[in-house]
Amino acid sequence: MREKILVGGYTKRESKGIYSFDLDISKEELSNLTEVAHVQNATYFALDKTKQHLYTCAADENGGGIAALSYKRGKTELLNYVTSVGAPLCYVAVDNKRGFVYGANYHLGEIRVYKIQKDGSLALTDTV
């Protein structure tokens, strides 16, 4: 049985963001490592219920936030990147029923609430 796996991480050296690879469980084998998104420090991410939008915690020199990407047939396109000054987020979850994405910042003790727009991009609506 083969599954597509997404992985991300910090981009300090050679890594460029989010990658996919195939995991063959029966053969215990990984193959087809491919970069799918060039997003700085893409550490945590979640797909929406359609699996056509990918939301990832990311950080750059301006702070941390969430990048929204379209994800179709293994290809991505950046829709938008909503940042806030301060430490990067360390959790992301999609609320498909209500149409929100939530991000948590443990360093600042806050939760950020983003409204999912029609095209899958995000708009920050609240910080708690």
UniProtKB/TrEMBL annotation:
Gene3D superfamilies named in the record: YVTN repeat-like/Quinoprotein amine dehydrogenase (2.130.10.10)
Family note: Belongs to the cycloisomerase 2 family.
UniProt protein name: Beta-propeller fold lactonase family protein
GO cellular component terms attached to this protein's record: cytosol
Species for this entry: Lactococcus formosensis
Signal peptide annotation: none
One GO molecular-function entry: 6-phosphogluconolactonase activity
Family annotation (InterPro entries): Cycloisomerase_2, Haem_d1_sf, Lactonase_7-beta_prop, WD40/YVTN_repeat-like_dom_sf
